[in-house]
Structures are given as structure tokens and as C-alpha cells.
Amino acid sequence: MTDAGEVGRALERIGREDPRLCAFIEVWPERALADEARARRLPLAGMPFAVKGPAGIRSYATRRLVAAGGVPVGATSVPGPGTPWQTWGLGAHGRTVNPWHPERTPGGSSAGSAVAVAADLVGLATGSDGAGSVRIPAAWCGVFGLKTTNGLLPSPDRSGLASAGVLTRSAARARTYLSCVLDSCEPATTDLPIPAVFSPDLGYAEVDPEIESVVRRAVGRLVTGGVVRLVDRTCELLDPREAWEAVRGGEPSPAATEIRRENDRRLDALFSRTPLLLTPTTPNRPHGHEGPGDLYSTALTWAFNLSGHPAASVPAGFTADGCPVGLQLAAERGADVPLLGMALAVERVLITVRP
Description:
Order of helices and strands: HEHEHEEEHEHEEHEHEHHEHEEH
CATH architecture of the largest domain: Alpha-Beta Complex
Strand content: 15-25%
Number of helices: 11
CATH class of the largest domain: Alpha Beta
Largest sheet: 8 strands, mixed
Helix content: 25-40%
């Protein structure tokens, strides 16, 4: 339940902070305030949320949230025309900035959604994830991001790589999202410690040593805190880049098909014995606005778009220069609700500060 006037307070925050952050392309104050009155008797009781991009208001997830009493207050920024999707969003006031480091990108393509949540303009924003577009900005803005199992929710993406997602302050709020968009979302019991495999690079990625160090320390805290128990297994995949690009381009070659098939086999074997896989969300920290730099920010995320597994990014800590770092959690296909239960247990130990 939300307090009366929460939509108005969200709109005030947006009006005050968005000229600096540029997280929104459109804000709908009159419509949102009118909708709040209608929604107060519904389960979400007028909870304000943001939608990704100009098409977000028509998405399946948005329609379900509105039906449950959520109130969309505006559309968030996505990359502008001709902009590399890995870099920055373009809001109504200009280039979307990272709330931790304005000179750096928030990640993309759910750029504005991540910034809006990180800066506490809204508590929940919708996203979509075709290669890491929810998880990467979640990691770089220090918030929680969930990519659902491919095909779990309707998606306009014909390649089958993109799935609906959400960005929130916590896994608990993401559970609110799932309870609205799924027909059935009974909370899953999470027995601790959770057997887990940790892979710093999935067998192929080049990872910034400081990013790996931050994530290793976070995993160590989870072990010490009794949340996870690392099993003596590894996860080494084939680099999915060729396969992802072939599927995205609509022309999968025999070599790309074999990469996808082999990675599916390896992941199926892992999840048949272990419920949780842990990796860094990104191999690098947020880069400058002008380009993605030397490392693919998608290196550790797009494998799960290709395989279809649900995956989430949880704030894990910070680099020495104050950039947020994400810990990626991946689970078996269809295990979105159990994954959220595991994420809840994880984030209770990995407490981070707000921007």
C-alpha cells in the first residue's frame, strides 16, 4: 500500500531532479494525479512507476501494473538516434547521466529507468533486456535489476533474445512487479545456504581486475553470512558473441547454432545440480559518455539472453573511484520467483548506500 499523495511527491522529485539527471523523455503530471485517485482502492493503491521509452506505456507489464493500481508518471530515456545502445540515454533535458558520476554513462538501454530508480524519483521502472539492457544499467547505477525468463511475458522482440524486466530499489519491490505481471506468483521458500557456483568470467570474458575483486569480496560475505555455499564446480561457456549477433541479425550460421547448443548443454548440466550461478554483472565499470571503451559491457549478460535463463543484478559494492558494481545471479529457466527469493537473501547481506 502507498500513502495518499505519493504520486504528487514523485512528480515533485522528478521536477526538481530531472533537469540534472535527464532520466525522462516525457512526464505526465495531470494524467498521473487523476489516475492516482482511481487507483487507491486497488492492490498497489496508486504506486507511482516509470515506463521504459515511448513504447513502454503500451507494454504488457505496464498494463498489468495499471490494472493492479500502479500509476505511470512518465516515460524514461533510451539511447537517441545514432547513439550506441551501450552508452547513454537521451532525455527531454539532454543526455542521461549516471547519478553517481555524471561524467559517466548509466548504461543502457534501460538508461532512464535505472537512473530514475537510483535517484529515488520512482521506486520501480519497467525495462526490457535483450543483451543486458536491464542488468547493466542496474549494476552501474547501484540498483536491483531483473531479466525474466525469455518468453515468460509477451515481448515485441522477434529475435526471441529480449525479455521484459524491471528496475527497483530492492528484490522485494521486484517481487511486487512479478506478483502483478504473472498469473501466479506464490513466494518461494529459500533454504540457506544456497548451493552456488561462482564464475568470475564464464570462461571467456576479460574482466577488470578491480571489478572481479569487488565481486569476489561480495561472494565471500555471502559465504561468511551463511547465504550461499560454493560448490566445487565451474561454469565455462563458449563466447556467445557470434551466436548472439547471428540470432539478432536473423541469420544464424551453423557455427553460431553450435555455440548456442553447446552453451545450453553446459548450463542445463549446471542448473540440474546447482540452483544458482554467480558472476559479475559487467566486466567493466561505467565508462564515459562518448563510447563503450575496449570491453564489451554485455560480455557476461548476453549469454543468458541467448539461453533464455532469468538473471538479476544485485548491488555488490564499489570500486575505489566510487562506481557501483553489480553481482549477477542466474537460475534455471522459469525459476524467476525462486531467483527473487535467492536475491532477497543475498541483498540482506550486501547492503549498499544510496547515491
